[in-house]
Amino acid sequence: MRWNPFKKATLQIYTPVNGKIIPLEEVPDPVFSEKLMGEGIAIIPTKGNIYAPVEGAIIQIAPTKHAIGILAKGGTEILIHVGLETVSLKGKGFNVLVNVGDKISSGQLLIETDWEYISTNAKSTVIPIVITNSHKGDKQYTITEEKEAIFGKTVIITASAK
User: Fold this and answer.
1) In a domain, 133, yes or no
2) Could you give the 3-state DSSP secondary structure of residue 156?
3) What is the CATH number of the domain that holds 56?
4) Is pTM beyond 0.85 here?
5) How many domains does the chain have?
6) Mind listing the pLDDT tens digit for each residue in 75-129?
7) Res. 2: pLDDT tops 50
8) In the UniProt record, does the keyword Transcription occur (predicted)?
9) Domain coverage including residue 124
10) What span, in angstroms and rounded, lies between the C-alpha atoms of 82 and 128?
11) The pLDDT of residue 159 is above 50
12) Does residue 66 carry a catalytic annotation?
């Protein structure tokens, strides 16, 4: 097969953690379930830390360490929000291993998590993964129908140029 310069590029976004995949509409927080921040999906984690779902750069880290923003190659902005109402934990339960501006590789460890602490002290451990610039309308997003998230193996969102 020959290279076609006009073929539309696609971005595969992998799950950043092991767990159960649920539609964003099932996240018990209207900011996510009503897609006010953008298109996406969510994971109910079973174990493990948070890993980079794509190659790109870190563009945001919440001061309370519960959320991280990534700019993927091609311009897709991805927010990984670890748990609900985790701002109130004031960073406890999270150890962020990257800084804003860092270039990252897919599968790179981003955040070490203490799920026992988070599950005891936050509203939920669910992890919304949101395309924060999906409203631009320049890409089409395909959400997986898989139910099981296996870190590094399961593609949860595919972004392709329109």
Assistant:
1) yes
2) strand
3) 2.70.70.10
4) yes
5) 1
6) 999 999 999 999 999 999 999 999 999 999 999 999 999 999 999 999 999 999 9
7) no
8) no
9) 10-161
10) 7
11) yes
12) no
